[in-house]
Amino acid sequence: MAQSIIPSKTRALGVLWNPLSLIFTQGQVRCHWKCQSRLSNNTKYEHVTCKQKNKQKNKYKIYVCHFYASRSCLLRVSPPNENLIISNPYRPWYERYQPISYKLCTRSGNEEQFRDMVTRCNNVGVNIYVDAVINHMCGSGGGSGTQSTCGSSYNTGTKDFPAVPYSYLDFNDGKSGTGSGEIENYGDANQVRNCRLVGLLDLALEKDYVRDKIADYLNNLISIGVAGFRLDAAKHMWSGDIKAITSQLNNLNTQWFVIDLGGEAISASEYFGNGRITEFKYDAKLGNVIRKWNGERMAYLRNWGEGWGFMPSDRASILTFFDSRLYKMGVGFMLAHPYGQTCVMSSYYWTRNFINGKDVNDWIGPPSYSNGSTKAVTINADSTCGNDWVCEHRWRQIKNMVIFRNVVNGQALANWWDNGGNRIAFSRGKKGFIIFNNDNMDVTLSTGLPAGTYCDVISGQKEGIRCTGTQITVSNTGSARFLISSSAKDPFIAIHVNAKL
User: Fold this and answer.
1) Domain 22-277+348-389 has CATH 3.20.20.80
2) What are the residue boundaries of the Alpha-amylase C-terminal domain, all occurrences included (predicted)?
3) Which site from 45, 85, 229, 451 is most exposed, i.e. has the minimal number of CB atoms within 10 Å?
4) How does pLDDT run across 204-220, given as a tens digit for each residue?
């Protein structure tokens, strides 16, 4: 398994590029979500708005109103706690994953702004999930001083973090089993869990004091109204330590969340064994298929899911927004297929500089001014984002596939068709049908859908009784003709029962 210090900025499709992570919620959220969205790294809290469907949107505040209209109700945010300010390179995106304390103040905003965002989102049914960094504090090379987002003091040489407080007694030094204190052998479970991950000061999670401090931090977020967490670098923590911490967590804030299992209030600890694991190879393998690398074909996706063997990540092809045509195909497949809990990424642009096949600018943080403050997410006349924000979640194709996924929720994959190569199609029961073409195609297929005329939600969308894109006619036998050129801007078509004209 490839290792990285923190999840990559260019998350492809919806699968996080990071060491094994764990996602859980402390209670059963009453929310019929099927598509999880993620707030782009370091976006300011004030630029997130949560509004009721069909109400006028503030053009400067974009995220949740669109997801809410698409019936998606999860938004995951970058770590909200105080972090080290890194100046070399200048304010990289990964500084958010180097904690100084559990105070709530980052480049995204302070505690008051965080609370306001959570409240506004919860009030319209959009739940906030938090990236939680609890395995470690900042890197051992962070020095000392007050160069942190809340101004708290720290000393990495003496392992002193008074704003928590942590001292040298609260770290794993001395039991790593390596001379350097770093992970030197990823095949050794003790090293992976007890040594420093590329220099990050590893917390002694077996100590009650450390567990209590982390639980206090997470419980504070729960009291504010946070609905769940993604535990960063979960592979580097003993599962028993995670269980000990999560067993101390409170139930969700009853102002917004109701736990309803047979009328009884259920303890949060009963749910933690069901935490989801992030499959970070998903995007890599699907990228190979979409690009037709290494002899891969879309026809091979017939048994996509648990039965697939994944390639080493360093040989994989990652789809990102820089390859927008292929990226939309990949996201479309992910949202149409029933495998897993999906996640849609929202990104930002940066100037790439490839040297020997590696982007040496992959550290660059969010769009910022010269003083380091993050730029606002502005909306252009064509609904795209400005100020170098990508906002893939606003792309028509992705937004409409979020709706597709919710429409077909609970429907089995059926009516699979492929040509043995790079043309595939399948239905989700009798509610939705999607077809992909990585070649030229003119074919008539059984859709499983009721007869009628449908609006393709990829080339356009249904607006009242009108379709702004391609119309597909399903016959009385359930069949329909699909014509897709390999040069088409979007080489796939999706229809569902809610897009019937």
Assistant:
1) yes
2) 414-500
3) 451
4) 999 999 999 999 999 99
| Contact (CB, 8 A) for 241 and 206 | yes
Tokens 């770290």 sit on residue:
171
> In sequence order, which residues have a C-beta less than 8 Å from that of residue 66 and are 6 or more positions away?
393, 394, 399
Residue with tokens 């139930």: 251
Longest C-alpha distance within the chain, in Å? 75
CA 225 to chain centre: 19
Instruction: Kindly state the average pLDDT of the residues 353-374.
Output: 84
Domain definitions of the chain by residue range: 22-277+348-389, 412-499
What is the rounded (10 degree) CA torsion for 347, 280, 15, 47? -40
pLDDT 10s digits, 2-30:
222 222 233 333 322 233 444 444 443 33
The amino acid sitting at 188 is D
Residue 422, class by beta-carbon neighbours within 10 Å (0-12 exposed, 13-18 middle, 19+ buried)? buried
Q: What is the pLDDT of residues 405-457, one digit of tens each?
A: 889 988 999 999 988 877 889 999 999 999 988 676 788 999 999 999 999 99
pLDDT digits (tens, 9 = 90+) for 274-315: 355 555 566 666 766 766 666 676 666 766 654 444 333 333
Strand partners, 413: 428
- pLDDT score recorded for residue 302: 62
Q: What is the DSSP letter of 155?
A: E
333: Cα separation from own chain's centroid: 16
Whose structure tokens read 């996201």? 331
Do the domains spanning 22-277+348-389 and 412-499 agree at the CATH topology level? no
Q: What is the 3-state secondary structure (H, E, C) of 434-461?
A: EEEECCCEEEEEECCCCCEEEECCCCCC
Question: What is the architecture of the domain spanning 412-499?
Answer: Sandwich (2.60)
